[in-house]
Amino acid sequence: MPPTWEPDFDFYITSIDEKPASIVVDLAAAKASPVESHPVLLGIRVPMRQPREDGLRDAAELDALGELEDRFTEALEAQVDALYVGRVVHDGATTLYYYAPEAHRQKLDDELPAITGDPGDYAPEWWVDDDPKWQLYDEFLTPDEYDQHMISNRRLIAVFTENGDKLEEPRQVDHFATFPSRQQAERAAGALRAAGFATDDLADPDSDDAWELQFHRVDHLAEGRPDEFVGEILDLIEPEEGDYDGWGAPHAEMMVN
Question: Residue 207 and residue 222: Cα distance in Å, rounded?
Fold first, then answer.
């Protein structure tokens, strides 16, 4: 039996070779990566029949591609104990990625079309490779710090929206970051103040822990604004090795007529 965890799939938009790419990844797999029992990487590239001009999926093809992905995943999980870790949609194709045990390497090499079944109107391409350190997952599929915060923003805004928040209402947004040294924290605080943030006094760490900085600014949460201010903060604190821990804000109730 393969190792198990509760999957946590999410997506982000990036670019590959100067072309847009949509990446879906199981974020929860990061806690287990690399999985020693599953060192074999399987990729399945499925050229789309009617991609958009930018190479991403057209709405008319979403259901067919989704059904094919589900069928491939169910078959591979059942027959070779595969772990599905994500997909990349880019340049007119959808590429699915799995990891499998070494014991099934020969079966993957010899029997893949039979394992996954009839692809219907699609013409998938398969390849099998060794990736015991899960480099493809860690270095290609996993979002970088900016994209990880964009995913967190989207999830947090969904909670605000579900609770009836009026996102366009300005309110104080609180932020938190840590730094390796007091000097770095002070320089970052100065840069943040120049960008309109108010900063709290630095507190001495209890031991060798990082220096903590709390800062605040009035912002709204509508129309992608959190992505903008988080990107701004990361640009300001990264030169000082800052580790941004995210933001919080009070709830603004919807206006009732």
Answer: 39
Taking each helix axis as running N to C, give the angle between helix 225-237 and helix 145-162, from 0 to 180 degrees, rounded to the nearest 10. Answer: 150
Q: Are residues 134 and 231 in the same domain?
A: no
With a CB cutoff of 8 Å and minimum separation 6, the contacts of 120 are 64, 68
- How far is Cα 20 from Cα 79, in angstroms, rounded to an integer? 34
- In this prediction, what percent of the chain has a pLDDT beyond 70? 96
Mean pLDDT, rounded, for 38-64: 97
Give the domain range for residue 225: 145-248
Instruction: Tell me the three state secondary structure of residue 245.
Output: strand
SS (H, E, C) 51-90: CCCCCCCCHHHHHHHHHHHHHHHHHHHHHHCCEEEEEEEE
Type of residue found at 254: M
Let me know whether 134 and 154 are in one domain.
no
